[in-house]
Design brief:
Radius of gyration: 17 Å
Main location: mitochondrion
CATH superfamily: Uracil-DNA glycosylase-like domain
Helix content: 25-40%
Function: Excises uracil residues from the DNA which can arise as a result of misincorporation of dUMP residues by DNA polymerase or due to deamination of cytosine.
Catalytic activity: Hydrolyzes single-stranded DNA or mismatched double-stranded DNA and polynucleotides, releasing free uracil
CATH topology: Uracil-DNA Glycosylase, subunit E
Shape: globular
Strand content: 5-15%
EC number: 3.2.2.27
Distance between the termini: 28 Å
CATH architecture: 3-Layer(aba) Sandwich
Family: Belongs to the uracil-DNA glycosylase (UDG) superfamily. UNG family.
Order of helices and strands: HHEHEHHEEHEHEH
Number of helices: 8
Largest sheet: 4 strands, parallel
Structural class: alpha/beta
CATH class: Alpha Beta
């Protein structure tokens, strides 16, 4: 885990729920294949240090097939074909940001380095078994991750993308101060729901407008376009 996050989340690691989660994960690793690889479970924390977070994009469960998940929500490693949700994210990005060119790669690492925290609410999964590690403790931990963003010493507001009901409920539960932060709500980018209001939501454009107005900075979404195929 990246140093800034380890410091902020230090108290979580000794809590009973986290000890139980560790025991569960050790047993799972002995009996099954688990994704992502161990060294990628916290890759989000190394790529996006706490003080660099400009936006948070929540997913739910890591992809559960070979060579896909690597610790960032919605992101897949080449040569994995772009998942439907990510194709719709790219489609909306190209509508919102005129200079954005849709990449062939689904690796969102450049965006993570640009200050976007791509966070799944559950950080591991058993191979080929969706949601198999949900309700084992990860959700409590990732709530603490979002709280760490809310409680940053610099007090800077960030953009929270609330795509789909689970993300919206999490943000509502944490009572995000919408005078200080921007919460952008819409249906999920999944092919099952994107046409109900994700496509056309202008979230990436709105995020940059708010960041410019509030902090005099924006997210370099075009950093993704430079990813080699």
């Amino acid at each position: 885990m990246g140093d800034s996050w380890r410091t902020a989340l230090d108290k979580e690691f000794v809590k009973p729920y986290f000890q139980k989660l560790k025991e569960f994960l050790i047993a799972e690793h002995h009996a099954h294949t688990v994704y992502p690889n161990l060294n990628d479970v916290y890759s989000w924390s190394r790529l996006t240090p706490l003080d660099s977070v400009k936006a948070v994009i929540l997913g739910q469960d890591p992809y559960h097939n070979v060579g896909q998940a690597h610790g960032l929500s919605f992101s897949v490693l080449p040569p994995t074909k772009l998942p439907g949700s990510l194709r719709n994210i790219y489609k909306q990005l190209s509508n919102d940001i005129p200079t954005f060119k849709v990449p062939t790669s689904g690796d969102l690492t450049p965006m993570a380095k640009a200050g976007v925290l791509w966070l799944n609410t559950c950080l591991t999964v058993r191979a080929h078994n969706a949601n198999s590690h949900s309700k084992k403790g990860w959700e409590t931990f990732t709530d603490a991750v979002v709280r760490a963003v809310l409680d940053r010493p610099d007090g800077k507001g960030v953009v929270f993308f609330a795509w789909g009901l689970p993300a919206q409920k999490l943000y509502d539960r944490l009572r995000i101060d919408e005078e200080k932060h921007l919460v952008l709500r819409s249906p999920h980018p999944s092919p099952l729901s994107a046409h109900r209001g994700f496509l056309g939501n202008a979230h990436f454009k709105k995020a940059n407008e708010w960041l410019r107005k509030t902090h005099g900075e924006e997210i370099d979404w075009v950093a993704l376009s430079s990813v080699p195929p």
